[in-house]
Amino acid sequence: MRIGIDARMLFMSGIGTYLKNLIEGLCRLGGGNEYVVFIQDADRERFQPPGEKFSVALSGAAPYSLGEQVGLMRAVKAQRLDVIHHPHYAAPIFGRTPMVATIHDLIHQLFPELCPSWMAWRVSRLLARRTAGRARVLLTVSEHSRRDIIRHLGVAPDKVRLTYNALPPGWGEKVPPSAAAVQGAETPYFLYVGNHKAHKNIPLLLEAFAGVRKRAGGVRLVLTGERAGLEGDLARLGLGSEVEFLGEVSHQSLPGIYAAARALVFPSRYEGFGYPPLEAMGCGTPVIVSDAASLPEVVGDGGIVVPEGRMEPLRDGMVRLLEDDGLRNDLSGKARRQAEKFSWRALAEGTLEAYEQALSGNPGA
């Protein structure tokens, strides 16, 4: 097969991590397929094809743009592909190349308040429904998202395949907890990794941490991203230098930061999957997550699950992992075993099967 992969979001968080792991996994599987990887013009110097079976096609169409509805469709047609894989609900509406699409979640459709405008929400609904209808096979990354897609997009169950997200080969192996990974890491710290969008519940996390500080001193909270937008919450809670913001962190630096943390705390109210908890568990770091959406499914017994939106259980879970070394060590082992269930091979093989089914015209096979 000659397979196209729309990788224009390769260097974004979330979907970008999915794409990197998928492309690397398909390369490792080998075989006689050829892959054309579509990337944005600006990313040409940043992406090197992983093998001789992979070539690059440049696209000037940015994600979520009108250009992807016209220019990208033409670029796909010009490559004479057997199958095209779009990793997002915002796929071109038209086109004749057999399509596989990955819809990671329906957050933009189910939570209008998280969209930039009412019009953006309407467009997201239209694109999601059109992509679900046009794709011969739909992939998604958790059973929770699969149920959402079937229910809210009206897709036949046998059209939606579950291919869990995965960790890259070797992730978390031989990663010693490094005090140098975070400045001042000799002081125990809790960690948050991700963006600061409203559904991530960062103000709730800060409130819970303030409660931890009242019950147990000598602990810090470290977050990726910037302080901007959270100054009011920090001032209200009397939090200062004990909360550190790392800014943008390279993916290569994350294992050491995860491994040195007391726990990852991830109180989001909606996730199609939740990569940071999986990455943390792969480093042997326990996690504390809310009981929302896919998070309990991903975490299993590798962490503590607390009611979404409630500060006290979140605070108490952090205190337990701070004070009880036995509990943390037990959860660390369980976390690694849980993470091992999400393999690159399963992701690559399941996706390749979807390509074959799309080409055969029998998605329920």
Description:
The radius of gyration is 21 Å and the shape is globular. It has helices at residues 15-29, 66-78, 107-110, 118-134, 143-153, 202-215, 231-236, 254-260, 275-282, 295-299, 311-323, 325-339, 344-360; strands at 2-6, 34-40, 54-59, 83-86, 99-102, 137-140, 160-162, 189-192, 220-223, 243-245, 263-266, 287-290, 303-306. The longest helix is centred in the middle third of the chain and has 17 residues, at 118-134. The protein has 365 residues and is of the alpha/beta class. The chain contains 13 helices and 13 strands. Helix 6 (202-215) crosses helix 11. It has a seven-stranded parallel beta sheet with strand order 3-2-1-4-5-6-7, with helices on both faces. The chain has a six-stranded parallel beta sheet with strand order 10-9-8-11-12-13, sandwiched between helices. The protein has two domains: 2-166 and 343-360, Rossmann fold (3-Layer(aba) Sandwich); 189-339, Glycogen Phosphorylase B (Rossmann fold, 3-Layer(aba) Sandwich). The relative contact order is 0.13. Helix 6 (202-215) links the parallel strand 8 and strand 9.
